[in-house]
Amino acid sequence: MATVHGPLAPSHPSPFRNAQSVPHSRMGYHPSAPPPKPQSTQPTSTRHSDPFYGHEQASRLCARFITHLFACPEYPPSSSNSQVKLPHFIAYALHRTKLHSSVTFAALVLLQRLKARFPTARGSSGHRLFVSAFMLASKVICDDTYSNKSWSIVAQ
């Protein structure tokens, strides 16, 4: 079982599958492409020191998109007792789920369609907007979704 890296380290085993047990279709596997490197070959010092878990570009792009589209703050509402900035939250979600990047961009398309349907919509939490759209996109694209317990860990 892989160890948990991130802001919260649950005391129970992770409900997420490690990278080796994820179906090839979820990892974007193509027979002519070289197989992906296992996570264990990455230097541990790099993996622990990167607050974006290797997803900095995608997480910053998503955060800018959501904050611009819905005029929401980078920090969650004070009622959530969390002070994780939106790009770090998104990077953690991408890291924990190990879903294909198409799921991430499908989530952004869903949010764009929501804004087009309701132009006056504003967001009080980009965190909630992202995780909701990410869950829906995962269900539509993968049809092999995680449990509610798993999503609660992703959503911190």
* CATH class label of the domain at 55-155: Mainly Alpha
Number of strands: 0
* Strand percent estimate: under 5%
Q: What oligomeric state do the depicted chains represent?
A: single chain
Distance between the termini: 20 Å
User: Which spans of ≥5 residues are poorly predicted at pLDDT below 50?
Assistant: 1-31, 38-47
Q: Which CATH architecture of the domain at 55-155 would you pick? A: Orthogonal Bundle
Structural notes for this entry:
The chain is mainly α and 156 residues long. It has a domain of 101 residues: Cyclin A, domain 1 (Orthogonal Bundle). The protein contains six helices and no strands. α2 runs parallel beside α4. The two termini are 20 Å apart. The N terminus is likely disordered. InterPro entries: Cyclin-like_sf, Cyclin_PHO80-like. GO terms for molecular function: cyclin-dependent protein serine/threonine kinase regulator activity; protein kinase binding.
